[in-house]
Amino acid sequence: MPGGATIQISNFNLTYGWKAGVTGSGKISIDDLGTIHISDLNSGVAIVTIRSSDDKLLKIVNIRILEKINAATSNSSNSVNTSRASGEGIATVTVNGTDVKVVAESGFSGVTKVDVVVSDNGQQKTISMPVTVLPQAPANPVADQKKLSEIVFTWDKSPNAISYLVKVRDETVCETTTNFCLANVIVGPTTPIMGIVKGNDGTELKFIPVYQINKPVPAITVNFATNSYALNAKQKLELNTIALIISKEGFTRLVVYGYTDSRGGVDNQKLSENRAKSTASYLSKLLPNVTFKVAGFGASKPIASNATTSGLAENRRAELSLW
Question: Where is the OmpA-like domain positioned along the sequence (predicted)?
Fold first, then answer.
């Protein structure tokens, strides 16, 4: 089993009153039902010690893998029979005294079973230990914001996964068998994002992509009347809407740039600065904890032709970007 995967060994036979202790290189816990959870194993090995309910070590007589035994040898010092694992997903299962050592196959995910026969005061009892090998979480998961409503998810492929899905606000936005997917959904620095790596037999494991935004992403453009930097009722409504998104998704930095068309008769540089300032000033009252960068560029960066009425209208603007 690759490092970082998880083995869960569960007791489905509580009538025998057994409990288990485990050792290994990973994180280990046992819940109230006797289920052993072993995760982050560097070696991919779980060792289980079987005890009775009164803490007496039980002698392990033999082990069976999915009811199949390919080979058996005698351990004279402990009178213990061991078998080579033949079940799907289990590389080896060996026993040493009162320890059962379970090693999962590299690349396997899913559910299999180890049956352990123990001797307790001369009576043999079978303990079934279902073994669930979860898919390994992918390395380097990233959520890279490209636009306000476009985000690209990437990761290194897991060695024992069959597919991946990504959820935003607990809703699935993409599912893939590759290491890449794109979602057209509004996100931000604090948007709840979760990935799920899926394995065989319905096994799955959650992972959290690391959000990143490498440059400001465009959010909204406000267009102005000729020689004006005043916001009308419609523009304020649009800014109210974007302010709710900024607050909800956790953006903390806004860039507001102002522009003019090419016509003269006014100080276009000053007019462009006032357009940026009036937009930022209105938003700052709605977003007191956000940092603003404000600048004007006059008529130097048209986005449409200044030879048409519609082009002039498009160039009289303030652009708001987020990050």
Answer: 211-323
In CATH terms, 142-212 corresponds, of 3.30.300.30, 3.40.30.10, 2.30.40.10, 2.60.40.10, to 2.60.40.10
Task: Using alpha carbons, select from 35, 11, 19 the residue that is nearest to residue 128.
Answer: 11
| CB contact burial 96-106 (16+ within 10 A = b; e otherwise) | eebbbbbbbbe
Q: Where in the chain is the domain with CATH 3.30.1330.60?
A: 217-322
Q: How far is CA 245 from the centre of its chain?
A: 22
Is the domain spanning 217-322 CATH 3.30.1330.60? The answer is: yes
Q: Which residue has the tokens 């009722």?
A: 233
Question: How many angstroms separate the CA atoms of 285 and 273, rounded?
Answer: 19
* Per-residue pLDDT tens listing for the chain (323 residues): 343 444 454 443 334 444 555 555 455 555 555 555 555 544 445 556 666 656 666 666 555 544 332 333 333 333 233 333 345 677 777 766 666 677 777 788 887 777 777 776 677 777 666 677 788 889 999 999 999 999 999 999 998 899 999 999 999 999 999 999 999 999 999 999 999 999 988 888 999 999 999 999 999 999 999 999 999 999 999 999 999 999 999 999 999 999 999 998 899 999 999 999 999 999 999 999 999 999 999 999 999 999 999 999 999 999 999 98
Residue 257 belongs to what H/E stretch? strand 253-259
Two tokens, residue 140:
């380097």
Q: Please report where in the chains the tokens 């000033």 appear, as a residue.
A: 281
Residue 207 in tokens: 């992972």
How far is Cα 148 from Cα 151, in angstroms, rounded to an integer?
8
**Which residues, in sequence order, are CB contacts of 146 under 8 Å at separation 6+?**
152, 217
The conformation of residue 68, written as its DSSP 8-state character, comes to B
